[in-house]
Design a protein that fits this description.
Elements: E1 2-6, H1 12-21, E2 25-29, H2 33-40, H3 51-60, E3 64-67, E4 75-78, H4 94-103, E5 111-115, H5 123-133, E6 143-147, H6 157-163, E7 166-170, H7 173-183, E8 191-195, H8 196-227, H9 231-238, H10 261-268, H11 274-284, H12 286-297, E9 308-312, H13 327-337, E10 341-345, H14 357-361, E11 366-369, H15 374-377, H16 381-387, E12 392-395, E13 418-421
Parallel strand pairs: 1-2, 1-4, 2-3, 4-5, 5-6, 7-8, 9-10, 9-11, 11-12, 12-13
Antiparallel strand pairs: 6-7
GO molecular function: NAD binding; oxidoreductase activity, acting on the CH-CH group of donors, NAD or NADP as acceptor; UDP-N-acetyl-D-mannosamine dehydrogenase activity
Domain UDP-glucose/GDP-mannose dehydrogenase C-terminal: 310-402
Pfam family, one: UDPG_MGDP_dh_N
Length: 431
C-alpha cells in the first residue's frame, strides 16, 4: 500500500513513519522546503520520543520520502492545521481545502481519502466532499472519503497512535470500511466506525470536555484564593469520591486542541453553547490571574516595578517543546507590559532569546513555573538560594510537593525558599 500524507507536523510525521514501519511506501508532503530537506536528511523538527529512530529506519529501508508535491497513491491522509477564524472563532478550513485541492490531480478511482485534521461538524459533508465531487468522483463508489481524528498526547504520540482506539467516520458505510482497513495496518486499539459528522463532533467534544473541566478547576482556584481555602486540598479530597474527577488547575490552556477546538462547536451554535464559551473565557483569563498574583507577591519588594522575573517553561505541555497556543507566552507578554525584566528558560524549546537556568534565576526576585517539565520538579535549591535576589518560586503547575524529599544536592536551604502554588496563594508560607 502506498500512502501520501499531507502535512508533516506533530501528527502527520509520526503517522507517516508508523505506516512506513509496517511495510507501506510513504510520501510525506509539506509546503515548507526546510522541513522537507530536514526530514530527508533524517532530522526531525519536533520533539517526540522514538520518532527520529523510526524515521531513520524508514529512510534506510526506502519506505519514506519527504516531498513538496503529492504523488499517486492508494491512500491520501490530510493532517494540516485548522486554526480559528479571527472574526467569529469558527474553524478555518483553508489549509484543509488547499490540501484536498492539491491531491485532486493525483487521485484515481478506488483511492481512499482521509481527513485527520480536527474540523467542525458537517465540514466533511458540506465543504470537503464537494471538492472531490466537482472533480468527477462519486463518493462511496469510486472514491472513499472519511474523517478519522487522532487522539494522542504529546510525548506519547508514537505509543498512542498504535494503542489508542480510533474513530473512523465515513461519508458512506463503504467509506468507513475502506478507511478502517487502512488503520488496521498498525492500530492495535479498537477501530470504531461511524458517520463523518459524528466523528467530527466526537473529536471536538473530547477536547471540549477536558477544556470545560480544566475551567472548573481554574475557577475553583480563583474562588479559593479569594475566600481563603486551599484549592489543591479541595481537589484532592473531592476526587476521592468515586464519581468525581476535577482536573488540575494551571496558568491556562494551550495546544492545538483544547485551546481551539471548542470554538468550532461554539461558532456553529453560539446561543446554545454557553458553557463551552464560558469555559474558554475562564481558561483564557488565567494568564492575567497569574500576572496579578505575581504582582501581589512582589508588593513587599522595594522597587517592585524594576523586579526581575525568571520564567521557567514556555511549552504548554511538560517534557515537550510544543509552544502552540501556550499560555506561558501570554503570561510573558503581560509581564513585559507591566515593565518587569524577564529572563526565560525552557530546556525543551530552542530560542536564541532564552537563557540557561542559572542565568534566568540570577538576581531574580521571583521564579514562575509555567511548564510542568521534569527538570522543574527537582530544582537545585542551593543554587536558587545562592543566585536569586529573593528566593520565591510561584509554581502555577503545582508540581513541587511540599511533602516530597528532594534528593538533588544539599536541600537544607529549601526551608529558606518561599514556594507558592494554587494551594497557598491566600496564605503564603515557606514550605
Amino acid at each position: 500500500m502506498k500512502v501520501c500524507i499531507i502535512g508533516q507536523g506533530y501528527i502527520g510525521l509520526p503517522t507517516a513513519v508508523l505506516f512506513a514501519d509496517n511495510n507501506c511506501e510513504v510520501i510525506g508532503v509539506d509546503i515548507n522546503p526546510e522541513i522537507i530537506d530536514c526530514l530527508n536528511s533524517c532530522q526531525i523538527h519536533i520533539e517526540e520520543p522514538g520518532l527520529k529512530e523510526k524515521l531513520k529506519l524508514a529512510i534506510d529501508n526506502k519506505k519514506y520520502h519527504a516531498s513538496l508535491e503529492p504523488q499517486k497513491s492508494d491512500v491520501f491522509i490530510i493532517t494540516v492545521p485548522t486554526p480559528n477564524n479571527i472574526k467569529d472563532l469558527s474553524c478555518d478550513l483553508s489549509f484543509v481545502i488547499s490540501a484536498c485541492e492539491s491531491i485532486v490531480p493525483y487521485l484515481e478511482k478506488g483511492n481512499i481519502v482521509i481527513v485527520e485534521s480536527t474540523i467542525a461538524p458537517m465540514s466533511t459533508d458540506e465543504i470537503i466532499k464537494p471538492i472531490f465531487e466537482s472533480a468527477g468522483f462519486e463518493i462511496g463508489k469510486d472514491l472513499y472519503l472519511s474523517h478519522c481524528p487522532e487522539r494522542v498526547l504529546p510525548g506519547k504520540i508514537m505509543e498512542e497512535l498504535i494503542n489508542n482506539d480510533r474513530i473512523v467516520g465515513g461519508i458512506t458505510e463503504e467509506c468507513s470500511n475502506k478507511s478502517a482497513q487502512v488503520y488496521e495496518t498498525f492500530v492495535k486499539g479498537k477501530i470504531m466506525k461511524t458517520e463523518a459528522k459524528t466523528a467530527e463532533m466526537s473529536k471536538c467534544m473530547e477536547n471540549t470536555f477536558r477544556d470545560v473541566n480544566i475551567a472548573l478547576a481554574n475557577e475553583l482556584t480563583k474562588v479559593c484564593s479569594k475566600i481563603g481555602v486551599n484549592a489543591l486540598d479541595v481537589i484532592e479530597l473531592a476526587n476521592k469520591h468515586p464519581r468525581v474527577n476535577i482536573h488540575s488547575p494551571g496558568p491556562g490552556v494551550g495546544g492545538h486542541c483544547l485551546a481551539i477546538d471548542p470554538y468550532f462547536i461554539y461558532s456553529l451554535a453560539p446561543e446554545e453553547a454557553k458553557i463551552i464559551k464560558l469555559a474558554r473565557d475562564t481558561n483564557n483569563s488565567m494568564p492575567k490571574f497569574v500576572v496579578d498574583k505575581t504582582k501581589e507577591i512582589l508588593e513587599n519588594i522595594n522597587n517592585v516595578e524594576k523586579a526581575k522575573i525568571a520564567v521557567l517553561g514556555v511549552a504548554y505541555k511538560g517534557n515537550t517543546g510544543d509552544t502552540r497556543e501556550s499560555p506561558a507566552l501570554i503570561c510573558i507578554d503581560l509581564l513585559k507590559k507591566e515593565g518587569f525584566e524577564i529572563a526565560i528558560h525552557d530546556p525543551h524549546v530552542e530560542n536564541e532569546n532564552y537563557c540557561s537556568f542559572e542565568e534566568a534565576i540570577q538576581n531574580a526576585d521571583i521564579s514562575i513555573i509555567l511548564s510542568d517539565h521534569e527538570e522543574y520538579k527537582n530544582l537545585d535549591y542551593d543554587l536558587i538560594k545562592e543566585k536569586m535576589k529573593n528566593p520565591i518560586i510561584f509554581d502555577t503547575k503545582n508540581i513541587i510537593s511540599n511533602n516530597s524529599k528532594i534528593n538533588k544536592t544539599n536541600t537544607s536551604k529549601k526551608d529558606e525558599i518561599e514556594i507558592i502554588n494554587y494551594g497557598n496563594l491566600w496564605n503564603r508560607k515557606k514550605f
